[in-house]
Amino acid sequence: MLKIPVINASRHELPAYQTAHAAGLDLRADLPNGAITLHSLERVLVPTGLSLALPPGYEAQVRPRSGLALKHGIGIVNSPGTIDADYRGEIRVLLVNLSKEPFTVQDGERIAQLVVARHETIEWQPTEALNATERGAGGYGSTGK
User: Fold this and answer.
1) Which residues pair with 26 in a beta bridge?
2) Is the pLDDT reported for residue 143 higher than 80?
3) 79 or 41: whose pLDDT is higher?
4) CATH no., domain 25-118
5) 67 labelled as ligand-binding?
6) According to the annotation, is 143 in a ligand binding site?
């Protein structure tokens, strides 16, 4: 199990997995000054009160919660948001209201998921041609319905 140093400056419990095989931990809004209302197509940066220290070779992805997306049209503008291993600031979530109805974010509400994953660092290898594949350069819609 990977151990991640974390500072919890919020009044809320640390993020936790909600089921035994969940990939993401739920992040909570830290709103000591009260709820925030997002109007249609409005976006807001919501604090969590959490800061962490990821080891090199890892990233944390901030992803939308499916229930908020389905029931209220709430998403994350830069989804997934990436937290790099050298970032030490507070995790904040850039929510957007894609519905026509206002949505109020309450203090302590679960607003996003955090998934920690390994990643590779690459080195570019310039070349004049790429190896051929059956798909080739077929892009958007090229594989049919």
Assistant:
1) 113
2) no
3) 41
4) 2.70.40.10
5) yes
6) no
